[in-house]
Amino acid sequence: MQIHDHVFEKFISADEIASVVNRLAKEINDDYSGKELVIIIILKGAFIFAADIVRLLQIPNRIEFLSANSYGSSMNSSGVVEFTVPDYNFKDKHILIIEDIIDTGLTLTSITTALQKFSPASLEIVTLISKSSMRIIDIHVKYVGIEIPPIFIIGYGLDYDERGRNLPDIYSKIPSG
Ligand code: IMP
Ligand code: MG
User: Fold this and answer.
1) Is there a smaller number of Cβ atoms within 10 Å at the N or the C end of the chain?
2) Residues near 123 by Cβ (< 8 Å), separated by ≥ 6?
3) CA distance 129 to 5
C-alpha cells in the first residue's frame, strides 16, 4: 500500500490486535476490581484502541481526552510535546492513560509529570504498542500490548502525516533503501 511517498505492508492483523486488547482489558479489570477509574485517552492516535478497550472494561469510569502532538508530519519524534490537561481535579483518583504507541517516551513523560501535580491515588499507562529500544526517557508502563522493533507503523489509529488511521490492521513501512 502506498501512502504519500512510502510503501507499507501488513504487519499486525486485526485479529491479533483484538486478542491483545482482550488480554489487556482482562488485566485491567482484575487489577482495578472494586475501584473507580478516570481514563485519559491520548488523541488522536489512541482513539480506535481506546474505543475497543473501554468497551471491555467492567470498572466504573469517567473518560477524559487529551490531545498531544509531538510528531508533526515527519516519522521522527520532534521532542517538543504540546498538550492541555483536561479541566478536572484528578486528586485521589485512579488515573489510567490510554496511548496508542510509546516511542521515545517524551510525550508520556510530559503528560505524567503534569498529572502527578494533582496527587492522584495512582497513575498507570496502557499502550497497545511499545518501541522500547527507542526510549530516550525510561518510563514505567504497566500494560503493554505488543513490543515492536524500531520501525514506523500505521493503521488502527496510527497515522503517517494524517493518513492511515482508519485501517483495521497495522502496517509497517518498507525500508526505501
Ligand atoms: P514519543 O513521545 O516519542 O513516545 O512518541 C509518541 C507518539 O509519537 C505517539 O503517540 C504517536 O503519535 C507517535 N508515533 C511514534 N511512533 C509512531 C509510529 O510508528 N507510527 C505513527 N506514529 C508514531
Ligand atoms: Mg499519539
Assistant:
1) C
2) 95, 97, 112, 115, 116
3) 24
With 0.90 as the threshold, say if the pTM is over it.
Answer: yes
pLDDT above 80 for 78: no
Give residue 132 CA to ligand 1 midpoint distance, Å.
Answer: 12
Atom 13, ligand 1: residue with shortest CA distance: 71
Considering only CA atoms, which of 19, 37, 13, 58 is closest in space to residue 170? Answer: 13
Burial class (CB within 10 angstroms; exposed 0-12, middle 13-18, buried 19+) of 5: exposed
The residue from 30, 87, 100, 103 that is catalytic is 103
Mean pLDDT value across residues 56-64: 98
What is the whole-number distance in angstroms between the Cα of residue 138 and the centre of ligand 2?
18
Beta-sheet pairing, 37-43 with 61-67: parallel
Active site residue 103: yes
Domain 2-173 has CATH 3.40.50.2020: yes
